[in-house]
Specification:
Blueprint: H1 9-29, H2 35-59
Helix pairs in contact: 1-2
Amino acid sequence: MVIWEYDVPAAARSLGWAVVANNVEALKILPDCGYAVACFLTLVGALSRWAVGKAVFWVAGMGGVDA
């Protein structure tokens, strides 16, 4: 996370998993799809976010930085 600095790395991971669970539940409720579709859409979103983040770091010349 860029916004907050954590004393414990586990706090950032826990927050990340809470966001993923929230995304799955929101996708299950709003478009009225099942858990399988909601999980798939959440996975696609997470992979897309990871790829765009890597691309931005690469374009900025910081390809070796792990975000």
